[in-house]
Amino acid sequence: MSAQVGDRIQAGRAFMRSNFTTLHGARSDQTKGMPPPPVQLPPPPGARVVDLPKPAPSVLARKDVFACIHDRRSRREFGSAPLSLAELSFLLWATQGIQEVISGGRALLRTVPSGGARHPFETYLGVNRVTGLEAGLYRYLPLKHQVAFLRGSEGLREGLTDAAWGQEFAGDAAVTFVWTCVPYRGEWRYLWAAHKTMLLDAGHVCQNLYLACEAIGCGTCAIAAYDQEAADALLGVDGKDEFVVYMAPVGRTQ
């Protein structure tokens, strides 16, 4: 093992350890009295916004949580059948849905845990086959349980596949979830200790997607091996104040 490789491994191990003790007397923007960042990015000006059906248990094919946990697998082969808009609504609610708005609208309680209730993620959707939705790129707007249409489907399948280092199921799935991180949401409170916490939060989100998929007869597979620059460019994010952290294609398995 080269010294350079060894140094990188040690840096990775240090990142995995708790960083809260290194903060010492550093003051975050929260302690300085600065307002928190918005809990949701606004839709682009003029974007078409689609209201989603209210999440309902009627979409569930399986209501036995034991069975869903037992049968959870990473699934990379999907059928050609589309998801319904109600099923997509349920998956979005299960992963980033809002249960309560707190602190005068400055914080959210969601269906997944997040360190300090900072919830640093935005959910993008590469839609190929969802009944009632035009194929294309969307972003979830959890405050009103809507999706904003960002652009059409031209080049989207190829772009998702390329961003996932040639994994074709990322582009061919009925819908591919792509989560970005807005890091200042966590940094506002926890400075550099926020970064490990935010990645832990990504795991919470994706595990909920796995279980929710099992419950509606679908499957997913988390993708952390992606081309950062290609993924950011595909979504049109700046790669600095917002960047991709996780992907998960979803399709019908039953």
What does this structure look like?
- With 254 residues, the protein is an alpha+beta fold.
- It has a single domain, classed as NADH Oxidase (3-Layer(aba) Sandwich), CATH 3.40.109.10.
- It is built from eight helices and nine strands.
- The chain has helices at residues 3-16, 65-71, 85-96, 156-163, 169-172, 184-190, 194-215, 228-235, and strands spanning 49-51, 98-102, 107-110, 121-127, 136-141, 146-152, 175-181, 218-220, 243-252.
- A seven-stranded antiparallel sheet has the order 1-6-5-4-7-9-8, sandwiched between helices. Strands 2-3 form a two-stranded antiparallel sheet.
- Helix 4 (156-163) packs antiparallel against helix 8.
- The longest helix has 22 residues, at 194-215.
- The termini are far apart.
- Rounded radius of gyration (Å): 19 Å
Largest sheet: 7 strands, antiparallel
> What would you give as the CATH superfamily?
NADH Oxidase
Total strand segments? 9
CATH fold-level label:
NADH Oxidase
Domains, number: 1
| Number of helical elements | 8
The level 1 CATH classification is: Alpha Beta
What is the percentage of strand-forming residues?
Answer: 15-25%
Spatial order of the strands in the main sheet? 1-6-5-4-7-9-8
Structural class: alpha+beta
Give the overall pLDDT as a whole number: 96
Q: What low-confidence regions span 5 or more consecutive residues with pLDDT below 50?
A: none
